[in-house]
Amino acid sequence: MGQAMKERINLLREFSVPLLIGVVLAMVWANAAPDSYRDFVHGQFLGRLSVHFLTNDVFMVFFFAIAAVEITQSFLPGGALHPLNRAVNPLVATAGGVIGPALIYLALNRFVGGPELQRGWGIPTATDIAFAWLAARLIFGNRHPAVSFLLLLAVADDGIGLAIIAVFYPDPRLAVEPIWLLLIGVGMATAYGFRLIRVRSYWPSILISGVLSWIGLYRAHLHPGLALVFVVPFLPSANAEHKEFFEEDQSDRSPLARFESDWKVFVDFGLFLFGLVNAGVTLNAVGQATWLVLAALLIGKPAGIFLFGGLADRLGYPLPEGIRRRDLLVIGIIAGIGFTVALFIAGEAFVAPLQQGAAKMGAMLSCGAALLAAIAAKLLGVPRDETPGH
User: Fold this and answer.
1) Is 24 among the domain residues?
2) What is the per-residue pLDDT across 242-254, written as a single tens digit (0 to 9) for each?
């Protein structure tokens, strides 16, 4: 593959073009021919399996695995979470970015919603990493430390989002069967065994430990998309981390780094199918859940991040060098872009099509947080490229 072609492909990935195309196509299809769209998403495709199942229960295994790789690498020496005291402020801000929108959602739901919408509180807790990163670079510039701070926050709260999905969103139609979770333990033990005997390929862990974990989650009636999250941390890694989030270190040939390198392109382009399957909501789907999700993201996210980050600063865990309070507020607004993970959680939170569609519409409208952040940055006089990055 030529260098020019690689650059074009990387540009498509960087701007999440495949995901955006999938979302637009889904919206057009769902509104122009809703029955045809519904048959495509939920009808039998591969044997008895639907496109929806193959996307959300199989493909998303690798999406969440890539997020788990970034979290695992961030704990290595040189990573954003090592040593831990260096990351106290962004982690406390992350907690605010999870608690704030959840509280706003639940509080507003008491007045304008109802018990049937209460399960949606987890939808606004996660931040879309790709779109938040793009918005931060456009607003702050590529080299501003706010970009790295936001990426760390987004990765951390997506990690919390994974836990929320696993704990709070079992299949509401089926009772949880905890006995099957023992298979996850067996899968983790197997992956650890491969690490102990210095297996240098990630494939045994993926094919054996990952499949055991997937079956355990599926049979326990928890979401199998999280299967590799329990396996990835056991893949052998480099002794230290030498790159920023989502950069590639060509010198790192550890199984963990090779897994990310081999599967990142597949995930980036596979998000086209995720958007096509999950974003097909009709324009009349706007409802109470839409405004609850949107308000929680646009109000709860920035408020929680700003207040908790500021509190950590006052308690002696300062904001990273080059980031001021006004930057923190803009970071919080950008973090209100829920989109990908919010769409996913919306599909798990609600079974009823109307509620699910309304909640998904709120997640998609949250992309407007980028415009609000740009306006806020202009009003607050936030400069671009104020300090060099790492």
Assistant:
1) no
2) 666 556 666 778 9
In a domain, 317, yes or no: yes
Tell me which DSSP letter residue 319 carries.
P
| Residue of 329, 321, 199, 225 whose CA lies nearest to 277 | 225
pLDDT per residue over 83-94, tens digit each? 777 788 989 999
* 388 in Cβ contact with 320 (< 8 Å): no
Report if residue 25 sits inside a domain: no
Please, are residues 285 and 362 in contact by the beta-carbon 8 Å criterion?
A: no
Of 38, 43, 66, which Cα lies nearest the Cα of 54?
Answer: 43
Average pLDDT value for residue range 116-125: 95
Residue linked to tokens 């033990």: 189
Number of domains in the chain: 1
Minimum mean pLDDT range among 4-8, 137-141, 279-283: 4-8
Q: What is the tens place of the pLDDT at every residue in 299-315?
A: 999 999 999 999 999 99
| Residue at 79: amino acid letter | G
The CATH number for 356's domain is: 1.20.1530.10
User: Which domain range does residue 330 map to?
Assistant: 47-380
Let me know: does 75 contact 279? Beta carbons within 8 Å: no
Rounded Cα–Cα distance for residues 204 and 102 (Å): 39
